[in-house]
Design a protein that fits this description.
Structural class: mainly alpha
Largest sheet: none
Distance between the termini: 37 Å
Number of strands: 0
Number of helices: 4
Radius of gyration: 14 Å
Order of helices and strands: HHHH
Strand content: under 5%
Length: about 90
């Protein structure tokens, strides 16, 4: 399956551009590309940590491929929404 570039706009109310706009309001100057890099790098660290916890360490390259995969992105967004979304009641 071919990996496609995703902005997550289809799955959340905030894509990388709108996140950038919100950060600018808060005094941060980041481009949408930089926001994407930070998000993807953070997710790679989470994936590697989860793999380690299950005794199945993976390389940085494997973690990067997992994070770039549309199936992973489709599944992680609802989790992030549940934890950080406006509907969060925790």
């Amino acid at each position: 399956m071919e990996n496609k570039y995703a902005t997550l706009d289809d799955f959340t109310t905030k894509g990388f551009r709108s996140i950038t706009e919100e950060l600018k309001k808060q005094g941060y100057s980041l481009t949408p590309a930089r926001v994407r890099i930070i998000l993807m790098s953070s997710l790679e660290k989470i994936v590697r940590d989860i793999a380690m916890r299950y005794g199945k360490p993976i390389s940085k390259k494997s973690a990067k491929e997992i994070v770039k995969h549309p199936d992973f992105q489709n599944r992680i967004v609802p989790i992030l929404d549940m934890v950080y979304g406006k509907e969060n009641t925790y």
